[in-house]
Amino acid sequence: CVKFTGFKKVKRCAWSQQTTHHKPLHRLIDKLSRTTLVLKRWAKNICSKTKLKFHMVLDIIQQLEVVREH
């Protein structure tokens, strides 16, 4: 099982924001839409950080291989 730091907090904050809609179905749609957008932004940020770390590790591995060859 993979745990993503901050997921629950981001989800809770997005879901708990006030809505101007009075009808229950419209309130639900608004909350789901908002939560979806916030979680997409959060996931994009997580993926960007992961990609950066991955490329940093690849660079370190390449440097170690060069040192090992000498």
TL;DR of this structure?
With 70 residues, the chain is mainly α. It is built from two helices and no strands.
Describe the structure.
The chain has 70 residues and is an all-alpha fold. Helix content is 80%, strand content 0%. The protein is built from two helices and no strands. Helix 1 packs antiparallel against helix 2. The protein is rod-shaped. The model has no long low-confidence stretch (mean pLDDT 89).
Which structural class best describes the helix and strand composition? mainly alpha
Overall 3D form: rod-shaped
Percent helix: over 70%
Helix tally equals 2
Largest sheet: none
Poorly predicted sequence stretches spanning 5 or more consecutive residues: none
Q: How far apart are the first and last residues' alpha carbons, in Å?
A: 41 Å
Mean pLDDT score: 89
* Global Rg: 20 Å
| SSE sequence, one letter per element | HH
Total DSSP E strands: 0
Strand content: under 5%
What is the fold's blueprint, element by element?
Elements lengths: L6 H10 L7 H46 L1
